[in-house]
Amino acid sequence: MRRNSFIPSLLRHVLVPVLLFLPFTGSAQIGGSQAFDFLNLVTSARIGAVGGYFSAVTNDDDLSLAIDNPSLLHADMEKRLVFDYVNYFSDINFGSCAYAHHLPGWGTLSAGMRYVDYGSFQETNEQGDVVGSFRASDMAFQLGTARAIDSNFTAGVNARFIYSSLAGYTSSGVAADLAVTYRKPQGRFAAALLLRNVGVQVNPYVDQTREKLPYEVQIAISQKLEHLPFRYIVHFTQLQKLDLNYENSNNPTLLVDPLTGESIEPRKMIGDKIMRHVVLGGELSPSQNFHIRFGYNYRRRQELKVDSRAGTVGFSWGFGLKISKFQLNYGRATYHLAGASNHFSVSTRISDFIKKEEN
């Protein structure tokens, strides 16, 4: 594609889908006001290490990234398998797995699932007496596909079925992720547009009380430097909602602390409102087999830090190793002084083992 044709292609393939979905974004909410919030949990160790978002990349066969952005699927992911596991707070554990297969002449397909196990809880009566126990869990089964539009653009979609069980209450839903990724041929720049969790709650927890899904609009860019083995990542999140400060439902003009519920003075600086949409990350690759990663999530830090001791809340880091036929990744993200999440990912290519056996 010629350089002077980039803008028309961008308008046709990226901005048009945004305009089509703008009518659905006006009433979007965040912060626990929707069902199936577990869909926003980060399972990939690589994504967790760079701030919780990583949706634009070139020349990469990391299938864990395509779990969130289906337009990153491509032929080089053929027969790749990935497992992600996160040791979260308390007894909560969650993870995901996915497998990719390429169909010549059509595109690349993926199949996978993600789950959350909240552990076991005590069941009590009105007097507080323990009468038993119960468990809670969420899961989503996912099919994805991607196809090249031209030499620059790839479009993809993830379709998923969602099931949630919380004690005696169950719910199900359907959702889709729509994505378009721009790659500069033979270059180091990539950009992506994502419309995440577009769907409905089919069966609500309580009859006739349907909740919205955690719909989100994202834009991501990444650039790999020419003379340094470093890639920087910039993610613009929650673009469907301008102001991401928490609101007091009794008085919408007042903000409230998300932990204590106490009213706080509204922030008037435009810089704060902008930065709550921005997540920054970086990836240093001294060799093809070793990577060092770090990230900074401004909104996470503002919402979860303790003013008297902010610590490293909002910061994350991790690394990746390639050992023989396996790609191992680790990520650690600090959410609060109470602790951090530990992310583990293992990826391999099934065909590598098949070839070895044939030989």
Report on the architecture of this protein.
By secondary structure, the chain is mainly beta. The strands form 2 sheets. A 14-stranded antiparallel β-barrel has the order 1-2-3-4-5-6-7-8-9-13-14-15-16-17. The N terminus is likely disordered.
Basic shape: globular
Share of helical residues = 10-25%
N-to-C SSE string, H for helix and E for strand: HHHEEEEEEEEEEEEHEEHEEEH
Strand line-up in the sheet with most strands: 1-2-3-4-5-6-7-8-9-13-14-15-16-17
Radius of gyration: 21 Å
The main β sheet shows up as: 14 strands, antiparallel, barrel
Q: With helices defined by DSSP (H or I, 4 residues minimum), what is the helix count? A: 6
Query: What is the oligomeric state here?
Result: single chain
Q: Uncertain regions: pLDDT < 50 for 5+ in a row?
A: 1-29
Structural class: mainly beta
In round numbers, the mean pLDDT is 84
Compute the separation of the termini in Å: 41 Å
Strand content: over 45%
* DSSP, total strands: 17
